[in-house]
Amino acid sequence: MRLRLTFLFRQRFTSQIITTSLTGGLIAGYLFSKYKPIVHAETDKSIIIGERIPTLPTYSMADVAKHTTKENGYWLAFRDGVYDISSFVESHPGGKQILKTVEHYRIGNLPLGEREANENNQEEVIDLFQYDPERLNAIENFFIRSEKPYNAETKPSMLISSFLTPVEKFYIRNHMHVPFVNINQYKLEIGNEKSTYSLSYDDLKDKYQSYTITSALQCAGNRRNGMNNEQQGTVQGTQWYVGAIGNARWTGVKLSDVLKSFDLDKEGKHIQFFGLDCDTSQRCYGASIPIEKALNDDVLIAYKMNDEILTSDHGYPLRILVPGIVGARSVKWVNRIIVSDKEADSHWQKADYKVLPSSIKQPQQIDYDNVPAIQELNVQSAICYPASNDDGNKIKILSVKPNDDDIKNRRLTIKGYALSGGGRQIHNVQISLDHGKTWLQTELEQLAQPYMRAWSWTLWTYHIPFNDIPSKPFDIICRAMDTHTNSQPDTPLGIWNIRGLMNNAWHKISLQIDENFLKEKKFK
Length: 524
Ligand SMILES: Nc1nc2c(c(=O)[nH]1)N[C@H]1C(S)=C(S)[C@@H](COP(=O)(O)O)O[C@H]1N2
Ligand SMILES: [Mo]
Known about the structure:
The chain is α+β, with helices and mostly antiparallel strands. The protein folds into 3 domains: 2-126, no CATH class; 138-370, Oxidoreductase, molybdopterin-binding domain (Sulfite Oxidase, Chain A, domain 2, Alpha-Beta Complex), CATH 3.90.420; 380-520, Sandwich (Immunoglobulin-like), CATH 2.60.40.650.
């Protein structure tokens, strides 16, 4: 019977199924990949499939294993839940209907700990990434660091080619899959321990005033690759070069307006955000920010990026946008906002995205509760032009052919970005051609931004006269200072941490003027 069933479901759901070992899991796996949390048809209460329900009886995996025939019925275990799917097996209605009704088959819970002990017998047979969008022209715009989950950084020359980063060139940092969203069922839940309110997508857009801010977003892991060194070791995580950053116009409603409208601004220390992207154990991406930040600054529940509806990679339908703070807190696909005395109980708030002491060589070696979560960004700058279209992490010495404009003006143009955290404006950006002995002031392109609300990045340009350029390989270094005279460290040695976070050491590129150009154009 088991074999026949498997076959039956394979036929129906082939595209969703990768592997299986148990019939029940096939169904459950398929069931749960789509709607999280599922809206219960009758009670209209949000429930999470497989979550422990204290009022139900307990059955062991051994009990479950006895129910695999028509006579005894068909049971299955999924997460902490035990299900009797006999009637389902008799009638096997179509997929959509099953999705809505799976918890109707619920009869009990596994004993505490059995789920973990039997994880191998409870199967997850879904391609969580089935809703990841097609990404057109990705290779043109990005260095793709991983496909599943999708992590792609903007090529440096593209970064500085416009003040606002076009959506299709904006870096994408996904810790898991892109979740499925049914906008008609979508609800944003907002609450605290006592009460929970909910808003539909249209409610949110219609009932609150909209705001637009220009803000950079930068991953705390941007420039991680530059932290690897021989003395201290290779850092762990996605090996970003300088492109896990972008600058965009974000439109949405103020988080503070929404909190105030439900009287949720009076108590609590942290505002927690959770996304619809959850792993197979129902752990969803989540992060939190201090309530002071949420109430006083331009923190948005955003629905537009550069005046267009958010794309699925950037968090459709709604994402949080916390300006001045590391990207990790700007939760995408947000569907739950919780006011609490505690930080979000998620891996990314409680363990990852923390700068550990340099003595820690394995992240497991530390009690994370003693290390604060990163919030505000530090002062940062990077050189983005000239740059190669090949992976910035691999280029040792870049061969540069000056463009026509530069030839006419007998100069080499250098461009890059700078940014600081917490709304601090960039005060200056300088470059050095002699390893930091002397510094040259660059020209800044920046917005006039309100005091302590400088969320946007600053682009900068410097023209090096041909006469000042050596004919052999040479280095260019850049560094920025913000209005609080925070500056960047000269090397990553003093800020090295095993997860390679918050690298803001002076950025250096090594280059050489193209040999043929040197010969042809009488460079000097
Ligand atoms: N739900 C959810 N939100 C998320 C993430 C995620 O994986 N899931 N990644 C975070 C991280 S680490 C960063 S740097 C930014 C990246 O936003 P972007 O992909 O729109 O550039 O989103 C943040 N929000
Ligand atoms: Mo990030």
